[in-house]
Amino acid sequence: MRSKILEELYINKGNYISGEVLRTKLGVSRTAIWKHINALKEEGYNIETIPRKGYMLLEMKDKLLPKEIEALISNNAIGQQIVYFDSIDSTNSYAKKEANKLKDGTVILSEEQLLGRGRRGRNWSSPKGTGIWMSLVLKPNIPPTEGVKMTQIAAAAVCKSIRELTGLNALIKWPNDIVINGKKICGILTEMAGELNEVNYIIVGIGINVNTDGFSCELKEKATSLFIEGGKKIDRRELVVNILKNFEALYNIYIKDLNLDETLVIVKNYSAILGKEIKIIQGNLEKKARAIDINNEGLLLVQMDDGSKELISSGEVSI
Ligand code: BT5
């Protein structure tokens, strides 16, 4: 009933619809309508209530509400179902917990994360209303070994979208960071579950600092936001939709015949590290190398000081 009421408010966006009209159309009591409206307000919808006039839905540019995103997503399969939270521990944790019940292509969004996660148990700072904290639930029919490529597809999609929407020089720091002017603007956390030959689900977690206007002392040196870099506030809904569309396009090409070429063009073109001297950190080991290529599997090819070459499949890279 709540979503039906919301539907009616959207049809009449900018105009009042009376409780009486809603009652007759939807066949529920006015008290029930009043209760649902209050619940919608609590979810974050900006609804004006005036006695004898009724209810009016107002513009909510600063929220990532599902209806607002659905209106822009058209026929993109990823993002047809959106689960939205005002606050949650972590969108990835939620997606993992509920994965079996969630449809392929479901997107989880939250205005804030209280326990946002990075890789290897690290924290991801996710303050309220300033960023995009989202997880994509994917159930492709691919072998589990292919799962790692999702990070490259997500990085390519985010980098392309940021460039398209802001014109900023976003670059990909293999494997899972997007940076601008050497500082991290986005991190990606891909998690999966599967059997020996089959993927049950893949969760692609994407965190982007969008309208953040400052960071803690600890992050100031290494983190930045689109607002800090471009000096303009960005409509987060537009960015979410653009990313989901770019992601789907690259993902579909890949899923068709497990060919990563299209993604690799972006990943290599906008690489922050190719051709550069880098440090690879794997556990307690740190080695210097030159990043020379990203291969068809999305792995990083490096050349050591002694001329030998090595393929890197995970770990930290610093410039
Ligand atoms: C990542 O890990 O970069 C993956 C981040 C994934 C976040 C998304 S948000 C939606 C979804 N739900 C989740 O719970 N997570 C995903 P890693 O490469 O390990 O980088 C983590 C490091 O980045 C931290 O140790 C900090 O140094 C730094 N960091 C933390 N928060 C940051 C932020 N908001 N911006 C830039 N750097 C940050």
From TrEMBL:
Function: Acts both as a biotin--[acetyl-CoA-carboxylase] ligase and a repressor.
GO molecular function terms noted in the UniProt entry: biotin--[biotin carboxyl-carrier protein] ligase activity
PROSITE patterns xrefs: BPL_LPL_CATALYTIC
Residues spanning the membrane: none
Catalysed reactions listed for this entry: biotin + L-lysyl-[protein] + ATP = N(6)-biotinyl-L-lysyl-[protein] + AMP + diphosphate + H(+)
DNA-binding feature ranges: 19-38
Keywords: ATP-binding, Biotin, DNA-binding, Ligase, Nucleotide-binding, Repressor, Transcription, Transcription regulation
Species whose genome carries this gene: Alkaliphilus flagellatus
E.C. numbers: 6.3.4.15
Family (UniProt): Belongs to the biotin--protein ligase family.
Location of the BPL/LPL catalytic domain: 67-255
Any Pfam family hit: HTH_11
NCBIfam families linked: birA_ligase
Binding site for biotin: S90, T91, N92, Q113, R117, G118, R119, K184
The name this protein goes by in its record: Bifunctional ligase/repressor BirA
InterPro entries linked: Bifunct_BirA, Biotin_CoA_COase_ligase, BPL_C, BPL_LPL_catalytic, HTH_11
Class of this enzyme: ligase
